[in-house]
Specification:
The protein has one helix and 17 strands. With 213 residues, it is mainly β. Strands 1, 2, 5, 8 and 9 form a five-stranded mixed beta sheet that branches.
């Protein structure tokens, strides 16, 4: 009986070693979500890239979240993939087209989108507990109107409509630069960011996060 138990344990250990020896993915796919070759500022992990790979019994998406700087990455096996953005998931016009990506070692690919609005020339000026943000907002397409321009602050460098401790909203006419003022909660350092909200669209396009001291 003792020999049967020992043999069984050896079989289990051998099976475990075999499982541990399965090949792991090592190739890096990286890229950005861009407009006019510039990465768009987004909500951290708010927008999702989907990767699909044909030729396998289990055909399901590989979800990859986009960072607040518009960049994404994933560790994959070499092979041919379809790269798409989720419909209705970003502050841009939906595009049902996919991008064919051949992953082989380190692979880079950008996804070009057409946002409703973009932000340029963001600046933040602080005087004591008063913060003034100034941005230039440009409408790229007129399919949907502007809802609001929002100033957010946070205690960390991850700042957006979900990750913030205070926000101020204005609805400008976009005839010039947009200025937003906020009274800070205390006389300490914060991280600030401006977001542009399109009517009927959940996600916003954002400026770069700036620390205001």
């Amino acid at each position: 009986m003792k020999y049967v138990i020992i043999a069984s344990l050896l079989l289990i250990l051998a099976a475990g070693c075999k499982k541990d020896n399965f090949e792991k993915p090592t190739s890096l796919l990286s890229g950005r979500v861009v407009y006019d070759k510039n990465a768009l500022g987004l909500r951290s992990n708010g927008v999702q890239v989907e990767l699909w790979q044909h030729g396998y019994a289990l055909f399901s998406k590989i979800p990859v979240y986009v960072g607040q700087d518009g960049a994404f990455s994933a560790i994959l096996f070499d092979g041919d993939y379809k790269l798409v953005l989720r419909q209705g998931n970003g502050p841009w016009l939906d595009d049902a087209d996919s991008i064919d990506v051949k992953v082989s070692g380190s692979t880079n690919v950008d996804i070009t989108v057409k946002p409703y609005f973009i932000i340029n020339n963001a600046s933040f000026v602080r005087s004591g507990t008063q913060l003034t943000a100034s941005v230039s907002v440009t409408q790229i397409n007129s399919n949907l109107p502007l809802e609001a321009v929002n100033l957010y602050i946070g205690n960390t460098n991850i700042v957006d409509q979900v990750n913030s401790i205070k926000s101020v909203s204005v609805t400008p006419d976009l005839s010039g630069d947009v200025n937003i003022q906020m009274t800070l909660p205390a006389d300490q350092a914060y991280f600030a960011r401006v977001g542009v909200k399109t009517a009927g669209v959940a996600e916003q396009v954002y400026s770069t996060v700036i620390e205001v001291k």
